[in-house]
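Forum > Structural Biology > Help requests

Title: Can anyone predict the 3D structure of NmrA family NAD(P)-binding protein?

Hi all, first post here. I have the sequence for NmrA family NAD(P)-binding protein but no way to get a structure on my laptop. I'd be grateful if someone could post the structure tokens.
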Amino acid sequence: MIVIMGATGATGGATLRSLAALGTPSRALSRDPARLAAALDDGTLARTETVPADAADPASLRAAFRGAHQLLLTMTNGPQQVRYERNAIDAAVACGVEHVVKISAPAAEPDSPVAVSRGHHLVEERLRASGIRTTVLRPYAFMQKLLLQAPGIAASGLIPSATGGARCNYVDVRDVGDAAAEVLTRPELAGGAYPLTGGQAYSHPELAALLGELLGRPVHHLALSPSALHAHLVARAGMPDWLASHVVEIQQLAVARPEAPDGTFTRLTGRSPRTLEAFLGEHVHHFR
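Reply #1:
Sure, ran it for you. Structure tokens for NmrA family NAD(P)-binding protein below:
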């Protein structure tokens, strides 16, 4: 039995769908399982058991993990993430879970310049201490996060960044779900640490040019300082302060540590990752 912790999130939902496509059943946890079930397509729902659980309630986690052999651990980035994921690890140990797939991040180090990545490091440390076999997936920036800026880009024709000409890796969250499904269903892949990127890294000027071509009108890059970008994301994109800080930090990481595409996804799945061009084409109406 595979348990999905964070099933209502983007990565957890993508993994549910990927597992269902492989014909593999799973158990999805949610504080509101009826709402989760209603959000699933028929094919995924047929392969998914929805179970009530709350990451803040260790007893509910232990009840939900009974009989589980594997756990996908993917919680939404935020101030409570470390506490919630540690609760899940403790419950997994108590229930005899044998394998955890942890959705982590690049630069998950104790002195990482990205606060969320420092949190992922703390969770990984708890996993290592637990003795459970662990597989770590390290996806770069989700293409889907670009949609958070779509209203502002549509209104202004500007894509703000503090990256200058540095390139950023983007990965479609559906590819993260496919990679997670592979390591959950192929025992020979368990125990590794796998970076996940798309097939090409893009600078923000290149991203603006690509989006402008799809829209048929000019889109320009707006170069900002890190502090000015933070203020812009809070005031114009409506991001909470911690999320705006996270965006700035990962952009500055791309400046400090040049990013390039990695072929790990293809080695895991046997196919090429989804492209940014295809993703933007699929969602171009959000930017009009």
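The chain has 13 helices and 13 strands. The radius of gyration is 19 Å.
Shout if anything looks off.
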